[in-house]
Amino acid sequence: MTSNGSFHRSGSIPLSAFVLLLLAAPLFIQPLAGAQEAGVRDAPSNEHRAIDFFVMELPDSEGDGFEPHIVAGPGVSGGEWLYIDSPTGIGGGQSGNLWISKDHGDTWEAHDYGRNALGSGDSYTAIASDGTIYYTDLYLWSSTIDTSKDGGDTWIRNPLATVTRVGDRQWLAMGPTVGTFPGAQSETLYMIYNDIPQGLVIQRSQWSSRGLMWTMGNHRTPVTSSVGSRDHFAVDQNDGTIYLPNKDGGGIAIYVSTDGADSFSRYQVLTTDEDVQNIFIAADVDDEGNVYLAWSTQEHVFLGVSTDKARTWSITRVTDTDGTRVMPWVTVGDPGRVALTWYDTPETNGTSDEITDADWGAYAAITTDALSENVSFLITPILDYVHTGGIRTTGTGGNADRDLGDFFTCDVDEMGRLIVTFGNDGDDGPGARKSKVMFAKQLESPFMKEGVGPVAFFENETHGLTVRVDASGSYDMNGKGISAYLWDWGDGTNSTGIRSEHTFERGGAYDISLKVINMDDMRSTLTRNITVTAHEKAGGGAVLYIIVPLGMIMLGAALYIWYRKRKASGGIEEVRVKGT
User: Averaged over 457-477, what is the pLDDT?
Assistant: First the structure.
């Protein structure tokens, strides 16, 4: 086309050449920068089986199972502590809940750190490397930051922690301070929140270890005015890069800062017409800087993975069966070892708030190869029943059941175990507010770190219907030894011991499983399908059942032939009874 809008022709183009150009055109079209999106792929070979979890109800937690959050972090006395928080609600005058475990979740202690006259609308906890606890509560026009440097015994309050007015959902995260400047700490505490109607705001505390001094990031402007998913975020613990995903324009975008929240770049994760259900899109980062996101369309749970600072993404559909899934979360251990958690029901006759007769469970998916081309998952129940009725994740009108809130969370402990907190309210009905806070700890492999836990191994030999097994090849990577060997013979019977033997009642194929438990109560299971046959019974075994009948038949046939030959030669005379 010329500058005046008329076409200029230097010669005609044959129809065949025109068609070839049309067919080849897609080869020359390049994706736009910042919007490189891979097609969604399915997990090729998921495994569905229940693995062992330790599950308990937290003390004095009835009514507090609304949006519980868990984090594993340093304790002020050394070692790792676990922290669980949940809100108590605006208007009640009570600060949010906090439970602490100092023994990897076996026991928990509630910490009542005083009353907040404005209540606790949303809560969240972050832990510094020295064990300092930062706890935030939301109320109507701001949020608090409460700080404890002695393990939760005493607190310093900042009731006006936010630089601007808070409208909704604040989050906290710790990360290494980016850059050097006078008076800066080695770690920065970040807070993000929605300043309605302005948008997402991020602020940081870099000069005070008590959360008392804050400055706004992103040149004192919102990161985005689109707040479709309320903006959960993650910070790379090595280089301080901030990753903030958001449902944005019908798909998912992610905002990335490499300068300590001074500025952000936007990249597209997913462009889809399919509804992204999440109120919160969860994010995490591994030790190599790989970024992971989790979200749901209600029908399925998805995992996004980026290995290049969120510029490009591979997306996998995690779930592969029919059902309804809400509130997925993601956590990562070693690179590529990822776990997702969510509430799940097999019911599909409506959205999560419409299926009011559904039974829900808490589920997890674990993968050790999230960075591979063909990622697959172990999908397991954590607790197969936690709720009856609908689950509504927005609004409060009508018969909305909001008792579980909008999310529950997971993390990884220092031993590589998935740890989860979630709500459990059974069949108490909408608005009852009796949901209990639950804690679950993964006991059985695959674990979230390499080189931890026991490894189950056994050799076997069969003799007819008898199987002999030897598990002496099993070992414990924790170095403390194996304390138990548990055998499941696949026919409803069980036994114990490093070596064992079992005789089946009939031949066939059986799934024989060995579960080994180490001194840390971590477990590993190996299952083999073994076939036994009934051909070596004592006293001749099954062979007699074949040889004896055949021998009798052959003997009978030989006698019959002999009889016929003798009769034909006259050697046998017929004897008739007199009178016949």
Answer: 98
Token pair, residue 448, equals 């979230």
The residue behind tokens 């300068």 is: 259
Checking if the pLDDT of 160 tops 90, the result is: no
Rounded alpha-carbon distances, angstroms, from residue 265 to 205, 233, 257, 291: 22, 14, 6, 15
Q: What are phi and psi of 546, to 5 degrees?
A: -100, -50
Determine which of 89-103, 188-202, 539-553 has the lowest per-residue pLDDT on average. Answer: 539-553
Contacting residues for 345 by C-beta, under 8 A, at least 6 apart: 323, 324, 355, 358, 359, 360, 361
Supply the pLDDT for residue 419: 99
Closest residue by Cα to residue 278 from 227, 321, 348, 315: 227
Decide if 324 contacts 301 (C-beta within 8 A).
no
Instruction: Give CA torsion, residues 98, 104, 108, 113, to 10 deg.
Output: -30
* Residue 197 preceded by cis peptide, ω within 30: yes
Q: What is the largest CA-CA distance in the chain?
A: 137
* Residue (of 277, 353, 356) closest to 319 by Cα position: 277
CA 497 to each of CA 442, 511, 515: distance values in angstroms, whole numbers, following the listed order:
24, 18, 11
Cis peptide before 74 (omega within 30 of 0): no
Please answer whether residues 420 and 412 qualify as being in contact, where contact means their C-beta atoms are separated by less than 8 angstroms: no
Residues 6+ apart with CB under 8 A from 103: none
When pLDDT is averaged across residues 391-395 and rounded to a whole number, the result is 75
Report CA-CA distances (Å) from 428 to 59, 263, 404: 19, 47, 12
d(CA 81, CA 576): 105
Closest CA to 513 of 467, 556, 575: 467
pLDDT > 90: what percent of the chain?
62
Model confidence pLDDT, tens digit, residues 343-386: 999 999 988 989 989 999 999 999 999 999 999 999 999 999 99
Mean predicted confidence (pLDDT) in 471-479 = 98
Write down all domains in the chain, each with its CATH number in brackets. Answer: 47-62+295-444 (no CATH), 454-532 (2.60.40.10)
How far apart (Å, rounded) are the C-alpha atoms in residues 453 and 457? Answer: 13
List of residues 6+ apart from 246 with CB closer than 8 A: 200, 224, 226, 227, 228, 229, 231, 252, 253, 254, 255, 281
What does each C-alpha distance from 162 to 147, 205, 208, 216, 225 come to in angstroms?
15, 11, 15, 9, 18
The helix (H) or strand (E) run that includes residue 284 is strand 282-285
| Bridge-based pairing state of the strands 80-86 and 499-503 | unpaired
